[in-house]
Amino acid sequence: IRACLNMASGSEGAGNPPTKLQRPPNRLGLEKSSYLLQHAHNPVDWYPWGQEAFDKAKQEDKPIFLSVGYSTCHWCHVMERESFEDEEIGKILSDNFVCIKVDREERPDVDKVYMTFVQATSGGGGWPMSVWLTPDLRPFLGGTYFPPRDSGRRPGLKTVLARIMEQWVDNRDGLESSGERVLEALKKGTSIATNPGETPPPAPDVAYRCFAQLAHSYEEEYGGFRDSPKFPSPVNLMFLMSFWSVNRSSSEGAEALQMTLHTLRMMALGGIHDHVGQGFHRYSTDSSWHVPHFEKMLYDQAQLAVAYVTAYQVSGEQVFSDVAQDILLYVSRDLSDKSGGFYSAEDADSLPALGGTEKREGAFCVWTWLEIRELLPAVVDGATGGATEADIFMHHYGVKEQGNVDPEQDPHGELQGQNVLIVRYSVELTAARFALTVEKVSKLLASARAKMAEVRKSRPAPHLDTKMLASWNGLMLSGFARVGSVLDDKALLERAVHAARFLKEHLWDAERQIILHSCYRGDEMEVEQGVSPIAGFLDDYAFVICGLLDLYEATLETDWLRWAEELQERQDHLLWDAEGGGYYCSNPADPTILLRLKQDQDGAEPSPNSVSSLNLLRLSHYTGRKDWSQRSQQLLAAFSDRLTRVPIALPEMVRGSMANHYTPKQVVICGERDAPDTSVLLATVNSLFLPHKVLMLANGETEGYLYQRLPVLSSLTRLEGRATAYVCEDFTCALPVADPQELRTLLLA
């Protein structure tokens, strides 16, 4: 992202040519991806990633131009408009290169390989990514955004293409050999494997080092882990709460919790949180979480919902529960398909409300002072100085007549005179300022937000990417299951079950026994598959398995546990590295993927290896399979070097290391699922943040899934016919309890 933003200073070009929609579609018109369809009317002879393009490059002995992006990427839109809509550039590309367009969200395997090359050769990365390859797919030059023509000291795309064409004729051997050298170095440099006899580093040491590294990068005033831009980083927050849970009485534990709760509070107050339409934007361009990059991604909503409901479990503060529900309201309303699936993202850019042909960042979300003044003109009874609803609202949310966006946060002038809502005062302080009750101000602010939401409905909406990915749907399944179980909200749990059924119906190929990576919303609102369905990647398996385990703990329906076990077996068969340990990100047998990568960073999404370290451990306790707990250890051992040196890069894997060290508690509730006494005990378990536990229901059905895998369950019985809880380690159990308070004490011991 950094490189994308740094390079994005080219001139605006001529805009969309008038013939764009009249031009017949190229090959991308047959694709399902929103991003590829955005380029279907370019005057470029685009191919999707596939054998047809590879064969053409070999037959015609032409270099490949690979362009990678995604549908809600601002600078991808800019490069499409400036360069790929340019007739002259389109002809140069089509005549001299085989041009391939890739949606990075559809083909993360392709994206990871060539982004690794771009980062290694240019020192940065981002999207759009532009890479030139030999006909056998080996990269020899790469970058991110290029302006169409030379701009200052930066060469334009036209110049770069001319130089490559010249070098391809005059210095082809040099291009190919330098690319080959870099690729060989990357193969060695990206290798992650266990040394013979190696064991994972000690979890308490790794966890303390991860805490210390996060504490060092923590920004105290507004929370978060850098000055700007600031990302939500839920993986950091989940690690810190897990660290606190085993260090509650230490000053480090207290500091970890304080950093987490302060960050979550500040984000909830900031402009990164959509106060009118709910949900969270991608990241903040400043240190105070005020002016965001306005796109909304499903994976952020999923992980933040879990982080906020976990903060509620830890602190008991209602605000965290409210924000978690707010996120799920947004996802249910705006990112949900009737099939049960979840859409991928909402764009940052949209057409201005007052008209215009050029989309602007944040146009859907921002407000002028005058708009709010005209929308909320009523004088409020009893308010000091005859204040109107607008006066009170604008005071509370920092609205200014000249706009509240610092020009530094608006380099292209798109937000001039606009306001991004940010909570500047507590409701109590706002109430005191206008001599009103807290209850009255709360109602007034809620009413004003509802009126503004109605106004938004009349604005041109940002583009919605209706692609549905197994991986991100797995994350969102966890979000609904976790929040639903903590809050005992039946509607949220029903939505989680609907999502799991969607995954099984539309993204599970029962015949081939594989997960499919993606499906799409068709023109008739039905779910469609692509012409060549994309086989699932590691993150599809890992995130769906995690979602199913969370759904089992929320509903205690063993069908979800059974499917999670099947998926783990398929993941092991397809993607486990039997020699070096850990999982490959994609099928290692695919000859078109030049690097066999194992993702070693928890970023915007957790590394699927990190998630798998926890999945394997949880499944071993549900199935009695010791080989899976051993495999979790082997996985951690493969990442030993990274965990030891820079655990801050893998906070989710550090959680997996901690879970292996602090043997998970098996919490067994003996009772009927829907009986009131069972529900009370389950509510007690779900009210607490217990990162190292597995929850199961023993309902007496000895022929059932769990009893068949864990025969010891048959020895656990109810006390005097009442629902009874057993808290065990490796099924060595403490004395059974039927009282919720006694259970709470036992769980916190």
From TrEMBL:
<dbReference type="InterPro" id="IPR004879">
    <property type="entry name" value="Ssp411-like_TRX"/>
</dbReference>
<dbReference type="InterPro" id="IPR008928">
    <property type="entry name" value="6-hairpin_glycosidase_sf"/>
</dbReference>
<dbReference type="InterPro" id="IPR024705">
    <property type="entry name" value="Ssp411"/>
</dbReference>
<dbReference type="GO" id="GO:0005975">
    <property type="term" value="P:carbohydrate metabolic process"/>
</dbReference>
<dbReference type="Pfam" id="PF03190">
    <property type="entry name" value="Thioredox_DsbH"/>
</dbReference>
<dbReference type="InterPro" id="IPR036249">
    <property type="entry name" value="Thioredoxin-like_sf"/>
</dbReference>
<dbReference type="InterPro" id="IPR012341">
    <property type="entry name" value="6hp_glycosidase-like_sf"/>
</dbReference>
<feature type="domain" description="Spermatogenesis-associated protein 20-like TRX">
    <location>
        <begin position="26"/>
        <end position="187"/>
    </location>
</feature>
<protein>
    <recommendedName>
        <fullName>Spermatogenesis-associated protein 20-like TRX domain-containing protein</fullName>
    </recommendedName>
</protein>
<feature type="region of interest" description="Disordered">
    <location>
        <begin position="1"/>
        <end position="25"/>
    </location>
</feature>
